[in-house]
Amino acid sequence: MRRAARVDANHGLVRDRIRFVGRPCKDTSAYPEFCDLVALHLAGHPVLMEVKDGDKPPSARKLTPAQVSFHMEFPVVVVKNEVEGLIAIGYPADAAAQNVATWDAQYVQRELRRRARQKGKR
User: Fold this and answer.
1) Tally of CA atoms within 13 A in the half-sphere of 86 that contains its CB
2) Dihedrals φ, ψ of 3, to 5°?
3) Which among 46, 81, 47 has a CA at the least distance from the CA of 61?
4) By the 8 A CB rule, do 103 and 17 touch?
5) Which of 12, 53, 68, 80 is deepest in the core (most CB within 10 A)?
6) What is the mean pLDDT of the chain?
7) pLDDT for 7-17, tens place per residue?
8) pLDDT confidence of 77, banded at 50, 70, 90?
9) H or E segment to which residue 65 belongs
């Protein structure tokens, strides 16, 4: 039986940011020898993405042999953070950075409301 695939720490953030802007994004990290994410570019074509943790040193972000093989056959974009993920699907750099700031603010507000509801139930 196959174990769950390991993903980088920021994998979920990149996926969620792309979905937050309304672009379809499929998490394909569970498929062996494939890329991490498939998202739809603003122009309508698919973008294959490999998510690497930008906080780790370059030696820890190396591609596995299976990833290198896949990258030789298909065009794959390696992204290290959420902003790079948005740029990969066609967002201008300044709009991507602004979107990340907006998403952060909305996330904090939702989290505060959720905690207030939980506190009221006690």
Assistant:
1) 23
2) -80, 160
3) 81
4) yes
5) 80
6) 84
7) 888 888 899 88
8) very high
9) helix 65-73
